[in-house]
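Our preliminary data section would be incomplete without showing what the modeling component actually yields. Below, a chain of 280 amino acids is followed by its predicted structure, encoded as tokens that our downstream tools consume directly.
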Amino acid sequence: MSGIDGLPPLREVIAEHGLRAKKALGQNFLLDLNLTARIARIPGDLSGMDVIEVGPGPGGLTRGLLAEGARKVLAIEKDSRCLPALAQISEAYPNRLEVIEGDALEIDPLAHLTPPIAICANLPYNVGTELLIRWLTPKDWPPFWSSLTLMFQKEVAQRITAAPGDKAYGRLAVLAQWRAEAHIALTLPPEAFSPPPKVHSAVVHLTALPEPRFPADAKILERVVAAGFNQRRKMLRAALKGLTPDIEDRLIAAGIKPTERAEQVPLEAFCALARQFEKA
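Predicted structure:
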């Protein structure tokens, strides 16, 4: 990659700017520019896309996205130490990289972007799941993004893509798969990062569906699913009894056995149950 954009290898960038990863910021830097280029290719053709990147750090993935032809990259970085390194990348790709210093949980990026928009990021571990849930639960659907390509701990990635009956199947899988196609595109060992985390990581690619797979009110579905999985060892008739006294009748009407547990219930059945609540 340094041969493509004329910029130095990431180890040199990190040394030059003193960018020791901070645990408090959930930082684990990817140093292999061939690997960041592979991740940048997962969303497909970026030539007509604006891309949001959260937590670019020294800019390895940023460089991959720009080299792969992203129309524009909006990089949101909380760590001011990384800004000089990102400024060097901006100089190498004039008018195609905009950097905003701040917390991605507090920034509305849409004023800076033109659709279509993709999100591609090696997310800081401490905010990754919260950001994903926000992106999956906007007020209106379809969302502003067309795809999400996101790095998580492997365990979180498995929770997003799990099927009913899997140990990892839960609220995250239902929320993700109701409105998006989701699959694990790449798995990475700890030694791919600096510093190496204690767990394997994985890149999940999600493509927004034009509309949810099955009809349901989003808020009702979220409430039913959260209640079911909050007490996942209990039968649903017990786990959901706090929502309504006639829960057994509603479960049966939705085609769900009251003695089943949440991890056994497919997405379509959860949506049917949400519609039973909506009727009432």
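The chain has two domains: 2-208, 218-279. Residues 2-208 form a domain with the Rossmann fold fold (CATH 3.40.50.150). Preliminary results of this kind motivate Aim 1 of the renewal.
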